[in-house]
Task: inverse folding
């Protein structure tokens, strides 16, 4: 089984840049409205 442990996306959808380390067990994206949680998930899904 392959496990994604690091994600780096640059120049995607214009000026967006995403870089995060992932825990192999579980990960949470927590933040107030408008901070890019859904954008981060959409970028990862589109890149895969």
Result:
């Amino acid at each position: 089984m392959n496990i994604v442990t690091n994600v780096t996306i640059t120049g995607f959808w214009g000026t967006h840049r995403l870089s995060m380390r992932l825990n192999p067990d579980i990960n949470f994206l927590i933040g107030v409205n408008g901070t890019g949680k859904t954008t981060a998930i959409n970028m990862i899904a589109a890149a895969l």
User: Anything to note?
Assistant: The chain has one domain: 6-47. Residues 37-47 form the longest helix (11 residues). The first strand starts at residue 6 and ends at 12.
